[in-house]
Amino acid sequence: MGGLWGDMGAAKGRKAFLICPVRGVSPETSRADVEKLEAEGWEVHWPPRDTEQKDPVGLTICRDNRNAILAADRVFIRWDGKSKGCLFDAGLAFAFGKPITVLAAPPVTPGEKSFQAMFRAWAWGTRER
Predict the structure, then answer these.
(1) To 10 degrees, the CA torsion angle through 21, 112, 4, 126?
(2) Rounded to two decimals, what is the model's pTM?
(3) Residue range of the domain that includes 110
(4) Which pLDDT value is given to residue 64?
(5) DSSP characters for 69-83?
(6) Nearest Cα to 34, choosing from 20, 44, 19?
(7) Do the Cβ atoms of 48 and 27 come closer than 8 Å?
(8) Using one digit for the tens of pLDDT, what is the confidence trace for 51-103?
(9) What CATH number does residue 64 fall under?
């Protein structure tokens, strides 16, 4: 499974966190990613499945995801360009210095600052790409 941007890294026995939209989005949009990663040997924390979503304000969700991101060896990102939860989780991964692989994101407009441009540069370990 190749990422849109970034190296996949070695999988066997390693932990991954999949950043993906949850609220108002069918889990089917990211289930195939989880199945492929797990088939490659990744132990995947997938928020629709592995983070309790019944949280009236979201604090427990954010804490649980923070802990799972901290424990991950690599973070995979599937971002629809809208999900604020994805951006929150990506900020945590960035703060923890986690390597990322971007599986999906909106197109990058050359010369324009955007989260997807930053994700691409982060994934490749460069300022611009």
Answers:
(1) -120
(2) 0.89
(3) 15-124
(4) 98
(5) HHH-SEEEEE--S--
(6) 44
(7) yes
(8) 999 999 999 999 999 999 999 999 999 999 999 999 999 999 999 999 999 99
(9) 3.40.50.450
